[in-house]
Amino acid sequence: MLQAAPFPGLLVLLLLLAGLSRESNHYEKKRQKRNVYDEQPRLSSEQGNLVFHAGSSKNIEFRTGPLGKIKLNEEDLAEMFSQVM
């Protein structure tokens, strides 16, 4: 008498998962690089520094909510400017 293999469902499940993982790699999208123009603002990291690049003839603006603050090294910039003026 022939005996059925133990856990036949497990074997089918493993084969199914192996096939799905191979298919998912096939459809992965590669990251496309885009052209960077002088007019486009961007952020970059250069030697550990965060650099803001404004577009040509453009500003860098920080906008907060009604109670928000802009801080530089734990100091409120609005307070610093009011002390200078």
Tell me, briefly, the overall form. Answer: elongated
Query: How would you classify the helix and strand content by structural class?
Result: alpha+beta
Going across the biggest sheet, name each strand in turn.
Answer: 1-2
The ordered string of helix (H) and strand (E) elements is HEEEEH
Summarize the biggest pleated sheet.
2 strands, antiparallel
Rg calc: 28 Å
Helix and strand arrangement:
Layout: H1 8-26, E1 42-46, E2 49-53, E3 71-72, E4 75-76, H2 77-84
Antiparallel strand pairs: 1-2, 3-4
Please provide a written account of the structure.
With 85 residues, the chain is an alpha+beta fold. Helices cover 32% and strands 16% of the residues. It contains two helices and four strands, in the order αββββα. It has helices at residues 8-26, 77-84, and strands at 42-46, 49-53, 71-72, 75-76. The strands form two sheets. The protein has a two-stranded antiparallel ribbon with strand order 1-2. The chain is elongated and about 80 Å long.
